[in-house]
Every structure is written in C-alpha cells, then in structure tokens.
Design a protein that fits this description.
The chain has one domain. By secondary structure, the chain is of the alpha+beta class. The chain is built from three helices and eight strands, in the order H-H-E-E-E-E-E-H-E-E-E. Helix content is about 20%, strand content about 35%. A hairpin with a 2-residue loop joins strand 6 and strand 7.
Length: about 160
C-alpha cells in the first residue's frame, strides 16, 4: 500500500512538472498597449429593458457605436448590433452590467460576442432564463453595455 501511495505521489509530481513546462512555453501573445493604442474602439450604452426594449440615449445617458437592437432567434435574448464593419475586430472586453433595479430582482446579465454583434443573456441566480421583455423589469431597468475591441486598422 505504501508503494502505491508513493508511486501515485511521484506520478502527480511528474504531471505538475510537465504542466509547468507546457504552460511556460505556451504561445501566449501579449500585445503592448502602446503598439495598438490608436486601434482601440469603445462601444457601449444603456439598454432599457421591460415591455418596451430600446437604446436609452438622452441628455444623461450616451450610446456610442450601437447601431440597433434585435431579438435573438429565441425572442428572449437581445442582440446588440454595432457599427463595426464586420466581426473581425478582436474583442478585448465585453460587459453587460445590471443597474440596481435589475440587481434587486436577483437577475444577472451576461454578454457573448463583440465585433459586429453581441448577445445579451439574462438569468436568475438559480439558473432560470429571463427574457429581456419580462414585465418584472418595469419601465426603468437599465443594462449598461461596454464592448472594447481592436479594429483591424488605425483610423486615417
């Protein structure tokens, strides 16, 4: 029994060493910010949820680079269509953040995609899928959207 335990310990140690070697020699590409600073594009804005869903843009809420909203094929999730020419922009970060009225409902937002389109998903903490036009949102529930990406070329 002691030989088996010792053998397993040695095997585990060897696997750890191999993992460290593989990770340290991985082909990770880190891009210095100063090399791409003029290619960074920030898009975002405020989406108003509830029975009427729209881009909330007024004197206190700005929307930049969001062309329009569409329904996902399930008619529940929101697709944010941006002014990106195509989907080749490299996404740096994408967030969909709930305001206090959505948070108190116990609903979280997630975002998938970037570039020319991003899909917003809403879920209760227990995993229940929530549609963006759910009446629980009332008339003043906001999602704050940010998509930061690298365009293919620097602006002229």
């Amino acid at each position: 029994m002691k030989k088996l335990a010792f053998g397993l310990l040695i095997a585990g140690l060897i696997l750890q060493v191999v993992a460290v070697v593989v990770v340290t020699h991985a082909a990770t590409v880190l891009t210095p910010a100063h090399d791409v600073q003029n290619r960074i594009v920030i898009r975002g804005g405020v989406l108003r949820l509830g029975e009427s869903i729209y881009i909330h843009d007024n004197s206190t809420h700005a929307s930049v680079g969001i062309a329009r909203l569409e329904w996902a094929p399930n008619h529940c999730d929101i697709v944010v269509v941006t002014d990106a020419v195509d989907a080749t922009d490299e996404v740096i970060a994408a967030t969909a953040e709930e305001d206090e009225s959505i948070s108190k409902l116990g609903i979280q937002a997630g975002i998938s995609g970037g570039g020319s389109k991003a899909t917003i998903f809403l879920y209760k903490y227990n995993g229940e899928h929530v549609c963006a036009n759910d009446s629980r949102f009332g008339t003043v529930s906001n999602l704050w959207i940010s998509i930061i990406s690298l365009s293919d070329e620097a602006p002229a």
